[in-house]
Fold this sequence. Notes:
alpha+beta, BirA Bifunctional Protein, domain 2, seven-stranded mixed β-sheet, 12 helices, 9 strands, 45% helix, 18% strand, elongated, binds 3,4-dihydroxyphenylalanine
Amino acid sequence: MINKDKNINQKIKDFNIELEQQLASVSSNEQLEKLRITFFGRSGKLTELMDAMKELSLEDKKIFGPALNQLKKESEQNYNNKKNNLEQELRKLEVLKKQQFDVTAYKPGQLEGSQHVLTKVIEQIQDIFISMGYKIADGPELETEFYNFEALNIPKDHPARDSQDTFWFDVPGLLLRTQTSTIQVHQMKTYGAPIAAISTGRVYRQEATDASHDFAFSQYEGFFVDKNISMGNLLATMKTFLQEFFEKKDIEIRVRPGFFPFVEPGIEIDASCPFCKNGCSVCKKTRWIELLGAGLVHPNVLKCCNIDPEKHNGFAFGGGIERLAMIKYGINDIRFLHGANIDFLKQF
Ligand code: DAH
């Protein structure tokens, strides 16, 4: 009897010591699973102990029954703790691995990537305006009629609202923005005046695709609203922008009247051809290149953005990014910019 007592007692102790030792050395899910089978499996050590109890007398069962139940509870608890800790450790390790993954590591013979020419041009535009104190702003491509038209002073019967130009959604009032001028409204409404921001993004128009048109393309839109802003400020800013962008200090600008409902007066700005003095294929022998639209922000737009036009005024400008890229880099078809021809893209 005493022997048997010792036997079971000893077995419980041994079970605990062994389990503790083995749990401490487990460092993977596979090892943990092996341990589970050894100790808690259907013919594992715990089952063996439970079976041994069946041999005991009723009296002994009363003594060792609770001890064994406690053993079962505690050991399973220890096992579960280990399982949770291991999970956490493995997760941490995974995070560490990702942090230490070196994306710049060089593998011999690997193809080199390069920046897309449009991205390059976008960064050039951003850099120029950041150097003039502008912030970068962004806005959604999925827009409401309000931001795309109404707030920009484009009346209900304006042809720009036509379903031939705009991609409308089935949901009434929702559309794909047709111009990045929408960002003016978001920004002015949110931040008020003074504000100077430059933004770039995709716009969408239902147009037939040819060498110079695509139904999705990119625009930049800049705006500066403060006190006593003049046309002179706008023209000086545009001249600086174009000289910096084409990296030619002698670029001149030419201004023509242009109608855009969200500016008054509205103008179109041409740049003197950066490539010739007497006419070439880029400027189609005219020496001038049409580049962008601009003007002084219409009081209705300011009002719509809760800016008092008696106190503040400003200018806005915008144009196509593909057009800038095509002129600067001598690309003659917009579709190259939107395609994935590696030989073309590799050049930049
Ligand atoms: N949003 C105009 C377009 O898509 C471009 C434009 C013209 C932007 C005049 C302006 C502006 O800010 O003042 O053609």
